[in-house]
Amino acid sequence: MPATGGRPAHDDPGSDDSGNGGAVLRLRPPVNRVDPRAKRWWWTQTLAITGAPLVVLVVLALALPPARGWLLVAAAAVAAAGLPLGILLPLWWYRVHRWEVTDSAVYTRTGYFWQEWRVAPMSRIQTVDTQRGPLEQLFGLATVTVSTASAKGAVTIQGLDHQLAADLVQQLTETTQATPGDAT
Amino acid sequence: MTTAETEWRKLDRRTVVVSVLRTAGLVAVGALPAVVAVSGRFSLALAAVTVGPAMVLIIGAVAIGDDIRWRRTSYRIGAERVELVSGIVVRKRRSLATERIRSVDVTAGLLLRVFGLAHVKIGTGEQTGAGESSLSLHPVAAAEGERLRRELLDRPAVRERAAAADGTLSRIDPSWIRFAPVSVLTPAIGGAAFGAVLQVAEWFGMQEGVISWTLDQLRAFPLVVSVLAFVAAGLVVGVVGSLLWFVEMWWDYRLEREPGGTLRVRRGLLTTRSVSLEERRLRGVEVVEPLGNRLLGAGRVDAVATGLSRQKEGERTDTKTLQPAAPRAEADRVAALVLREEVSPTASVRLRGHPRAARGRRVRWALLTVLVAVAPLLVLGLVLTPVLLHLAWICALVLTPVAVAIAFDAYRNLGHGITGGYLVARHGAVRRSTVALQRRGVIGWTARQSIFQRRRGLLTLTATTAAGGGAYSVHDVGESEGLTFAEEAVPDLFGPFLERT
């Protein structure tokens, strides 16, 4: 296999999978990024996750003088691990989470270490839901879930602008209603 | 259907008798330990005086309860809707559109059969909550059950299309029983038997007696012999149990194709079961070969269909099984007949292997598993006692070849292909599964790639479908090859999002 496009070369002869005449086929990233405000939403979440144990540890340290040293060490460890991760992860998520809606399908990509591409064709969409938790409402965001007749085929787009999400739901609902069949 | 039939009907009156007998049996079994305990401590007379009325009370309550249930339950089979009104305190009215009914399953346990009754379950095959898409008529007369089944599933529109190739597709071959003992059931039954013996002994307050008696018997032999004896006894019980289970489940098994375009499985010795599956709901078949069966060259055929009632916890009957473990050629033959194909798509020759990098991944997983198993022994051995160190290297020595062999086998079993209207995927070593899925039954693709897979150009593709488990995967396929396969199998799903580099 030719090592094109910055892909590392294979030293393993068995992985030669030239099923399409030598050209390497791959899934392109979906066009749209999520709303930039999603970064703030994710930061709030990661800070809450890191902050809660931090507060507990510090309060305990103040309340229990004998164990203060150890508790502060633990708190420092949590802070040292949690804060950089909490700040960097949302930036990263913003880079890797992408979505796209075409006339024929909904297409998303999520994750980096375990990257996942999902596609659900318009003709098979059964329900389109929006969820807005309290934090999402605060930041004017919404999550859209597109589900098909498969128990495992749902496609979720997080961190959309809520107005855009509403329009999207409208568009998807109209398109799927126009499609005949029971979508199984 | 005529309008005369749209009157409300009742369940069979004899349900009260059946309930009373069933409860009497259960209560008798339950009362036994109570009687033994009370009479052991006090007297038999006291036991009779206390336990007797309690039994009568329970049975009476059940009889009255079931009578009320019978009075308050009625159903109606109309031209457009099937309706059921039920509920003693909270009245429930449930109705299914007749044209959406996809399954009518008839089950009759021994007690029901003695009275000529059957339990009928009518389902629409929608993927809603388990209870909402089905009506349960428990019980009706067996003849009424058969009539309902015919009436609800036999529709003229479907009949025209599926006129050809009716009849029996497969029936039981008694020699298939040889595949029954080589399953997980055997050790499970064996283990359960020991538990049951101890439980019964406890009821009679003799648990310690039984244990010490057994120990006394075994003390005469060396430890190894007594352990072997225990294992052998468990195995014998397990083998006998699994043979009996097979006979009960698959006695008089027949797989038929009926004029209405329905596949029907009938089986059972004591409890007879009839599972009907509309072919319109069929999205493919899965040939499942657990390791034991595969070593003997056998496999089971499962249906991949929308809206089959999902197996409940602890329920051993699987409604999706079309044929029990049978020789591989037979399994492929039935798969081909069920799918109306010349050659079964699940046949091995039609599959393409996966890149060798997939083998490396499996071997690494195997070694990692062995490491995880041995590491605690190693650590404890270093900290506590060298005996554990010896145990650790013995474990590593035994487990490593086994794990690596399984890994190589798992790699050999990876495969995918397209046969006619079906996409086929195979994977697994301990439980090898070959699924043939209708290409038009695929309603979405998911591609997954871990960072390790990315480095080796591999990809796991998952076809989502409304049927069966909801998703079927092609594991560790070459990235380009897999995407080409996905596009070829179901055009225009991933297609618009592919790029060549």
UniProtKB/TrEMBL annotation, chain A:
Keywords: Membrane, Transmembrane, Transmembrane helix. It comes from the Bacteria. Residues 1-27 are annotated as: Disordered. Residues 94-170 form the YdbS-like PH domain. It holds the Pfam family bPH_2. The chain crosses the membrane at residues 42-64, 70-94. InterPro entries: YdbS-like_PH. This is YdbS-like PH domain-containing protein. It comes from Prauserella shujinwangii.
TrEMBL record, chain B:
The keyword Transmembrane helix applies. Pfam families: bPH_2. Residues 70-149, 411-482 form the YdbS-like PH domain. Keywords: Membrane, Transmembrane, Transmembrane helix. The keyword Transmembrane helix applies. Signal peptide: none annotated. The chain crosses the membrane at residues 16-36, 42-64, 179-201, 221-247, 365-384, 390-408. This is Putative membrane protein. It comes from Prauserella shujinwangii.
